[in-house]
Write a structure and sequence with these properties.
This protein is mainly β. The chain has two domains: 94 residues, E3 ubiquitin-protein ligase SopA (Pectate Lyase C-like, 3 Solenoid), CATH 2.160.20; 88 residues, Pectate Lyase C-like, CATH 2.160.20.80. Helices cover 2% and strands 21% of the residues. The protein is built from one helix and nine strands; from the N terminus they run E-E-E-E-E-E-E-E-E-H. Strands 1, 2, 3, 4, 5, 6, 7, 8 and 9 form a nine-stranded parallel β-sheet that branches.
């Protein structure tokens, strides 16, 4: 039988030393906790907040993130594509998501605010209406990705193909059009 945790706060817990209990965490807050490289598989996080946590290289196989927010978290190399996709919903603000993967996930309206997304894989992902405000998208991978109605107006350092992705209604600024046109080797002043 899985454990159930409701409205609990976890502060400065190093889960590399203290094993996280399998179960369902509802409306819990994790503040400055370390999950680096642990197996956080088969756990359900529902309406939880992670603030200032280290999730780098954490294994999230079959882990459920349902209406979860990550703020100021280090999440390098996380394979979100392996988590439970049922009711998957999360948001990221001021996070480091470098080298993570969202391959083939259906995550419309996801917020990536002021987040570093260097070399993140969004191949075949549904990102309709997502928000990339003030985020760094250096070497991001968009292939057969749906970014319709997504907001890239204040995003920077991205390049991707308009032909290989669905972009209808996506928002860009004049300042960041170069990332869409660089493959054509034209000069933009």
């Amino acid at each position: 039988m899985l454990s159930f945790f409701d409205y609990e706060n976890y502060t400065k817990i190093d889960f590399t030393n203290t094993k996280i209990k399998k179960g369902e965490y509802d409306n819990c807050t994790f503040l400055n906790c370390n999950f680096e490289g642990i197996h956080a598989s088969n756990i359900q996080f529902v309406e939880c907040q992670f603030i200032g946590c280290n999730f780098s290289n954490t294994i999230v196989s079959n882990t459920a993130f349902k209406d979860v927010s990550f703020v100021d978290c280090k999440m390098i190399g996380v394979k979100f594509n392996e988590c439970d996709s049922f009711l998957l919903q999360f948001s990221f603000k001021d996070c480091q998501l470098n080298f993570s993967s969202f391959y083939q996930l259906n995550i419309p309206n996801t917020k990536f605010i002021s987040t570093n997304l260097e070399e993140v894989d969004f191949t075949e992902c549904n990102l309709i209406g997502s928000d990339f405000s003030n985020s760094d998208l250096h070497n991001i991978i968009f292939e057969n990705t749906i970014v319709e109605k997504a907001d890239f107006r204040t995003a920077k350092n991205f390049t991707f193909s308009l032909e290989q992705n669905k972009v209808k209604g996506a928002q860009f600024s004049k300042e960041n059009l170069e990332g869409l046109l660089s493959k054509y080797k034209i000069v933009i002043d």
